[in-house]
Amino acid sequence: MFRLKKDSPITIFDIGNSKIACIIFRVEENKTKILGMGHKKSKGIVQNTIQNYDLLSNEINNVFEIANKSKILRKGDKFFSNITDNNIYTKKNYSELKAGKLGITKKIIREIYKKNIIDINIKNKQLIHSFPYNFYLNNNEVSDDPLGKKCNNIGFSSFNVFVDKLLINGFEKCFDKNKIKIKNFYDSGVAAALANLSEYEKKSGTVCIDIGYYSSKVVVFLKNKIIYTDNIPLAGIDITKDLSKGLEVSEEEAELAKIIHGNLQSSYNETIEIGTDSKNKKKISKNFLLGIIKPRYEEILEIIRDNLFDNLHARVGINNIVLTGGASKIYGLESLSSQLFNRKSRIGKIENNSSFFYNKPEFSSLLGLIELSKNHQISEINEQISGSKVVSVFDKIENWIEDSYA
After folding, report:
1. Is the pLDDT of residue 278 over 80?
2. From 266's CA, which of 40, 80, 117, 360 has a CA 20 to 30 Å away?
3. Residue 178: is its pLDDT beyond 80?
């Protein structure tokens, strides 16, 4: 498997609609040592779409300079980034080969893996994750480790995540302006799930819902494998806009009211004051605020639930819900989720209360990106599949097979 030298710094970028963050870290004795970090308000990106390449490029440079103020990095070091595609596309793929009479060898595993990758080329889409499912022997026996077993034919299934090539090209253009070469892009929802789910949750069947600024990312793990992903274009900004309209205040004042007074459970009908102008504050009841906020959260969760339950595999396998992202910090969301999904729900969080990231679910994707970039074969093959890069993908497959079937 791909390994990183302990003295090789790694840089990750988390680019969202509300913020851009950058972390530089090094792996020392199997521990992550953060060498630098920076984050700023996003510019140039709206609704997960680049609106102004120069603005976004400048902000990437600014946040990188903050993180790299000690001049830790050299050009050519390893850079990784998230990506969020409103039109995320997933596809299951199955490939089959004749196995021969000598049993399954590493060579056969390499060949069927390569065949599976070649078979899933989709026009105008770029593969960013390919998650292995199972091997099938003689069309029926399922095996996680087929090496040495005898059969007439071997089948292999995978779950694959694609994003639009134009979106990737746009981000690469912004990074190129800063002479930064991104080695791999990772889906934001996948990163958030890896940051928040325990090994037990990934095995037992869990939905991770990352409610961000513009979109809500959904990833389902079952039996330690990702079986479902989705991206819903409803999230925190929609709640803020509802409040702005309903309370007749600016979006800045609405966001402040949501953060300070927002909750999803009925309380005593006390009166609160909202507004940033001390001479012109508006008095409203807390229940009036609840009446604006709660329906939008219900809508977001109901859309996610209905989409999930349309997928039989996901519906049957779901036992837990984990909520994360900046908009998950509101009081009462855990209870509302349990009611709507009829599943045990919790809010994802960092257990270490001395960490900078404690009680900051808005940084979930960033933390997941650290894990992905430390071992960028966690999905077994995450290199971009296009043109000459196919060779490097196959090199990674060779390494994965050697590590998995040594």
Report:
1. no
2. 360
3. yes
